[in-house]
Specification:
The chain has about 350 residues and is α/β, with parallel strands linked by helices. It contains 5 helices and 40 strands.
Length: about 350
């Protein structure tokens, strides 16, 4: 489909700077912009591309002021990145939606599926499982017994959802994710590790997105809970009885040990490791590859392993590269001191 700059601006409640009749039919990155596409500028580091991009329309923040001539038509919006997201979502919704149940899918007689669902080839739906309206269950997904899935949720290929787990509405679970596998629970006994039965479940609230090959373990007792609006990247490990607060985001390869509680609106970088049985407050930001061993109060910004306040880490990192020079200087000072002592004697 083709849209004019004015139509896009009306949808985004933005203002056109340039030709409102300019038309686009696709998206592009600003550094690779092609005629007939729309792109965006949100990060100032990419501003130099806007003066040479061939894209026809560029979304920019309302406070953007060019320092040179710009050929594309601009649409000024309060938040260019959020506006791009809105357009991408609109484009996705206008695409062809899969419907119907493939004849090779298995659905238990006691299971129920809502209206307008799609269940792909070789998908499995277990006993007494309930799937809501307008859900997409892609091929080879395995949904165990007594599972509940809300409306408008998408389960991509090769996802496994174990028995008794609860998935909210408008969730997205990407390929290969495992929801509800046993937590890592073993008790030492007579020189061996005896398995502790994991009899709880996993609860994903509404609007949660789980990345590919991420694993969320079921609780020993009770529930591992991922609250509303949480976004987890690919290849993340969430252990048993963890609780993640509303609208927290977590990047790839992070790992959360058992019974740790993470607050709302937190941002956790890639390869962060959190030890078990600790509490992370609301609005905490944790930099990539940090190691967290103890509780963190709300609004903290930390980095490093073991993690420390980010300002202290940045000051320390300046010193790290100077350590060999500092070491040589200390050695020389020590020799000078010893020489002075000898001379005094």
């Amino acid at each position: 489909m083709e849209f004019t700059a004015q139509q896009i601006a009306d949808f985004l409640k933005g203002n056109v700077v340039g030709d409102p009749t300019t038309k686009v039919n696709n998206f592009s990155r600003i550094e690779e912009g092609l005629p007939g596409t729309i792109t965006f500028l949100a990060n100032p580091k990419y501003e130099h591309f806007i003066y040479k991009t061939k894209a026809s329309i560029v979304l920019v923040n309302r406070d953007f002021s060019p320092v040179s001539t710009i050929e594309p038509t601009l649409i000024k919006v309060p938040n260019a990145y959020a506006s791009l997201a809105a357009l991408l979502n609109l484009a996705e919704q206008t695409g062809t939606r899969k419907r119907g149940i493939d004849r090779s899918a298995f659905i238990a007689e006691t299971a129920s599926t809502g209206e307008n669902c799609y269940i792909g080839a070789f998908a499995y739906v277990g006993e007494k499982t309930v799937i809501g309206n307008d859900c997409l269950i892609y091929p080879h997904a395995c949904i165990g017994d007594h599972v509940k899935i809300g409306d408008h949720t998408i389960v991509y290929p090769h996802v496994t959802i174990y028995e008794g787990c609860i998935i909210g509405s408008n969730c997205i679970i990407h390929a290969g994710a495992v929801i509800g596998a046993d937590g890592f629970g073993f008790a030492p006994e007579n020189g061996e590790f005896k398995k502790i039965a994991q009899i709880g479940n996993v609860i994903l609230e509404d609007n949660v997105e789980i990345g590919a090959n991420t694993a969320i373990d079921r609780a020993v007792m009770g529930s591992t809970v991922i609250h509303q609006g949480v976004k987890l990247d690919n290849l993340i490990q969430i252990a048993h009885n963890v609780e993640i607060g509303r609208n927290t985001v977590m990047a790839s390869q992070a790992g959360i040990a058992g019974s740790t509680k993470i607050g709302s609106n937190c941002m956790i970088g890639g390869q962060v490791g959190l030890s078990g049985h600790i509490n992370i407050g609301d609005n905490v930001q944790i930099g990539a590859q940090s190691g967290i061993l103890s509780n963190i109060k709300e609004d903290a910004r930390i980095l490093g392993s073991p993690a420390i306040p980010i300002k202290n880490f940045l000051r320390s990192s300046v010193i790290f590269e100077k350590l060999p020079e500092i070491y040589r200087t200390l050695n020389q000072l020590q020799k000078d001191m010893e020489e002075l002592k000898k001379n005094k004697q």
